[in-house]
Design goal:
The complex is a heterodimer of chains A (304) and B (274). By secondary structure, chain A is an all-alpha fold. Helix content of chain A is 68%, strand content 0%. Chain B is mainly alpha-helical and 274 residues long. In chain B, helix 1 crosses helix 11. The chains are: A mainly alpha (304), B mainly alpha (274).
Chain lengths: 304, 274
């Protein structure tokens, strides 16, 4: 009987030949090559990049593709920037969007903080109510506001009471900027709150307790602890609210009608009037504003 | 009164004040959010032909009329088929991308890649709709169902991929390795191990994708054809010419279905929003 001497005694061990089991080794996990992202990028390039390129071409060649019969070139942009009506639509878009954003973020921040329990959990009942506009879509909300702002209805009475209090002229509420503004805020609020809820629920409970123990009142705790920890989330929600306000179509269309034109309704009107060069120019203006927002957010985040 | 008691009393008073303030803030927000929907539901069962109208009695006739109104029924089928197709297309493209981001090179987890994936969210929806209309006209793609599926798939893809990435990150590569060690091919591993583990994320993403497509209006505005319109577009067209309790009945039905369906999906599939 032969024995294989252990290694280290000058004798070589018989070479171990691994027995083939037929198993196939996956050298990398599925998806780790990154090819899936390449497919996604190509699909997005075709799905969105190509259409946006055509939109660019349409805007800068005066509607050549759609054959709108314009003079060509930058006709759409010229009309947008020289006509008082369209210039008013641009400034109104920016004004209403900024006001709607400011109010949505302030209100949404207060609501998110109020929904937070002491232990950081979130009161889900009221939070789910906030999902309604997201679940039902904007048309249902618009219909409700049309009813509410009609003469003799509570919304109409409330707005006019506020106008009287501020010494302003009372009257129609529908097809005014105030109706569009309230609609925009109603649409933005759930998104703002849903963005801020994870931020406020992650506030460290101990830090808040320590602040109170050391004698800081609610305002001091907010200024020194809550605000610094939530500032980035508030900025993100503000950028999102501004993007939603700028691109809001349904509320201005129905609550503002022809009397409160904004850029999104200008796009719609231009297509109905067979002026695709103008529609393309207005749409690109909106895209440009969206790009500025991203850059602004990136700059603010880097600054932090 | 001892100083300790005074301090405790003022702290209790502040605590009561803070609680009342919180109730006031949340209560005001709930009323502000709910008020338009309550009004719509009220008008849908109000026995009157005008909108809005004071209370004249309860009736269900508008829901009966709704069921018999063909344009809304046809539009509902279009919305359902477009929603399902767009969600499917979006999932097919987003799932491999999510796996790539979760498991691939670190560069895929950069903010630049996140920005690319979020591009359709940043572009205003009406601009997306117009751009796809021009592209469809240039490329000879018919308007209606095909163009709608295109537009909706583009719109919902960022939301789908965002919900799939965490789901993909939770699938342990070690289980795939075990499968391959036991002799399974890559395809079998994908079918028997990876996809079943991804299923909860896939279902949650499908629900979100379908809902976003179903309620969409701005992207659909330019992509519909005479015979193929989505339900929001049909409602939009109806409201442009007249507003009556019929559209309130439809809106109420949509509200109930969306809310019940959405909440059920959240509970059954344990989708956490917060």
């Amino acid at each position: 009987m032969t024995q294989t001497a252990p290694a280290g005694h000058g004798q070589s061990l018989p070479a171990h030949t691994p027995r083939s089991t037929g198993a196939r080794e996956i050298s990398r996990p599925i998806g780790s090559s990154g090819l899936g992202f390449a497919v996604f990028a190509v699909a997005l390039g075709f799905g969105l990049g190509l259409p946006l390129g055509i939109l660019f071409f349409e805007a800068f060649t005066g509607g050549r593709l759609a054959g709108s019969g314009s003079a060509g070139g930058l006709d759409g942009f010229r009309l947008l920037l020289q006509s008082d009506y369209y210039k008013g639509a641009i400034t109104r878009t920016l004004r209403l969007s900024l006001i709607a954003t400011a109010v949505s973020v302030l209100a949404g921040y207060a609501v998110a903080l109020s929904l937070r329990e002491r232990d950081g959990s979130i009161r889900s009942g009221p939070a789910i109510v906030l999902l309604l506009p997201i679940l039902c879509g904007p048309l249902v909300g618009v219909l409700g506001f049309i009813a509410s702002f009609s003469t003799g209805w509570p919304g109409h009475a409330l707005i006019n009471a506020g106008r009287e209090f501020l010494g302003l002229e009372t009257g129609r509420v529908l097809q005014t900027e105030i109706a569009v503004l309230i609609g925009m805020i109603h649409f933005n609020l759930p998104f703002v709150v849903l963005t801020l809820l994870p931020v406020v629920s992650n506030l460290p409970v101990r830090m808040l307790e320590v602040s109170t123990t050391l004698g800081s009142g609610p305002l001091g705790t907010f200024r020194r602890v809550v605000w610094p920890l939530t500032r980035r989330g508030v900025t993100a929600s503000a950028i999102m609210a501004l993007a939603l306000s700028l691109s809001n179509f349904t509320y201005p269309q129905f609550l503002g009608g022809g009397r409160v034109p904004v850029l999104t309704t200008v796009v719609g009107q231009a297509m109905v009037s067979f002026a695709p060069h103008l529609a393309a120019a207005a749409a690109l203006f909106l895209v440009g504003l969206g790009m500025i927002l991203i850059l602004l957010y990136g700059w603010i985040v880097r600054g932090d | 009164m001892a100083p300790g008691n005074k301090h405790r009393e003022s702290r209790d008073a502040r605590s009561v004040g803070a609680s009342l303030l919180r109730i006031a803030v949340v209560g005001s927000a709930v009323i502000f959010m709910l008020w338009p929907y309550v009004l719509v539901a009220y008008q849908a069962v109000n026995d009157s032909v005008s909108f809005p109208a004071p209370f004249r009695g309860v009736t269900g006739r508008w829901f009966v009329t709704l069921w018999e109104y063909n344009p809304f029924r046809d539009a509902l089928w279009t919305s359902l088929s477009v929603g399902i197709s767009a969600a499917g297309l979006s999932l097919a493209v987003s799932t491999p991308a999510a796996l790539a981001v979760a498991r691939g090179p670190r560069a895929l987890r950069s903010s630049a890649v996140a920005a690319i994936m979020s591009a359709p969210i940043i572009v205003p929806q009406i601009a997306i709709g117009l751009a796809i209309l021009l592209a469809a006209a240039t490329l000879g793609v018919p308007l209606g169902r095909t163009a709608l599926i295109w537009g909706h798939a583009v719109l919902i893809t960022p939301f789908v991929v965002r919900s799939m990435i965490p789901a993909a990150a939770q699938v342990p590569p070690a289980l795939e390795h075990v499968g391959s060690t036991l002799g399974a091919s890559r395809l079998v591993v994908l079918r028997s191990i990876t996809m079943p583990l991804l299923r909860p994320g896939l279902i949650a993403a499908s629900v979100v994708a379908f809902l976003l497509s179903f309620i969409n209006l701005p992207v659909s505005l330019f992509l519909v054809s005479g015979g193929e319109r989505t339900l929001p577009i049909e409602i939009f067209n109806y409201m442009t010419s007249r507003i009556d309790p019929l559209v309130a009945a439809l809106s109420t039905a949509l509200m109930v279905i969306s809310v019940v369906g959405g909440l059920l999906a959240l509970r059954v599939f344990r989708i956490r929003l917060f």
